[in-house]
Amino acid sequence: MTRWLAALLLMAVGLVAGAGPGTPAPADPGAAPGASHIVGIVPGPDGYLDVEVYSAAMDTVLAAKVIRARDTATPAPTLYLLNGAAGGSDASSWHQRTDIKQFFAGEHVNVVIPLGGSGSYFTDWLTDDPVLGRQQWTTFLTRELPPLMDEAFNGTGSNAAVGISMAATSVFQLALAAPERYVAIGSYSGCIRTSDPMGRAMVRAVVGRWGGDATNMWGPWPSPAWTANDPYLHAEELRGTTIYVSTGTGLPGPLETVHGPGIRGDLGKLVDQTVVGGLLEAVTDHCAHVLRGRLNELGIPAVFDLRPNGTHSWGYWEQDLHRSWPLFRDALARGR
């Protein structure tokens, strides 16, 4: 079973397109030397705020899209929406593929969509990669970005993180790295195990598809960083975190139609979503059942939305966000 799923994964990942690293950082004479800081905030033509942040950990300027809370005068929690393996490139981002601007228009929450990080697993890499460059995303997403967002957008310090596909693994790693930072996580269509044979195959396939070398991320197997970054092995430490996990089965569902979200009459896109998206979602379905068994064994509460059909695609992730938002809203209000 594991070998069959790994083969499906490698086949499907090999059919996905890629992207590159971030941009070099310009000098900012007004900032303290070496300190992370906001470079600029400007209203974008798409109705979002375009934010640029200098990351000291990566020595680069990274972009983010922001939706302000309904009442900007009252402190608000923050929801971080992480993109998948493309890092938001190729028009594959929350702000381009879903209705979040309309959905959150009346909500009292700041929504932040970091851009970049293709193939990075949003983790801290041990070594700079010749293709992907310096990847220190755990540091950025737990220590650098949240305090800056809270200061700039009147945040309460209560945060939740949602990730799709590759980032559906990352949100668990972030919660483990900084439990005081993220009170709730949403994992849509992901695989949490990273150090068993299937997990290692998945990680290497995803990182390699974007030109990177996973050995630069966590070292050669069996380096301890592989098990240290496996949320399945450290699930006990998730106790107290609000958890939502969702996936389809890979079977065609209600959105696999010629007029479905993102397809718009394109038969090629429909075939790609049905075949490639179906293969990927069959793998994540297996992963979700394994994770559910582990959390049940430990007595750790979590919400699992395991759909009877559906593929690895944005239309389902939009629905997942709609369904899980009330859970996150309540958790953000409670705080840690």
Helix-strand pattern:
HEEEEEHHEHEHEHHHEHEH
Radius of gyration from the alpha-carbon trace, in angstroms: 19 Å
For the sheet with most strands, the description reads: 10 strands, mixed
Chain-averaged pLDDT: 92
Q: Report the principal-axis shape.
A: globular
Low-confidence stretches: 14-30
Number of strands: 10
Q: What is the percentage of strand-forming residues?
A: 15-25%
Structural class: alpha/beta
Q: For this entry, what is the oligomeric state of its chains?
A: single chain
Q: If helices are DSSP runs of H or I spanning 4 or more residues, what is the number of helices?
A: 10
Q: Helicity, in percent?
A: 25-40%
Please characterize this protein's 3D structure:
With 336 residues, the protein is an alpha/beta fold. Helix content is 37%, strand content 19%. Helix 9 links the parallel strand 9 (242-247) and strand 10 (303-306). Strands 1, 2, 3, 4, 5, 6, 7, 8, 9 and 10 form a ten-stranded mixed β-sheet that branches. The protein is built from ten helices and ten strands. The model is unreliable at 14-30 (pLDDT under 50). The chain has helices at residues 2-13, 94-97, 100-103, 137-153, 166-177, 197-209, 214-218, 224-228, 267-298, 314-334, and strands at 23-24, 37-43, 49-55, 60-67, 76-82, 110-114, 155-164, 182-188, 242-247, 303-306. Helix 1 packs parallel to helix 6 (197-209) and helix 1 (2-13) packs across helix 9. The chain is globular.
Q: Quick summary of this structure?
A:
This protein has 336 residues and is of the alpha/beta class.
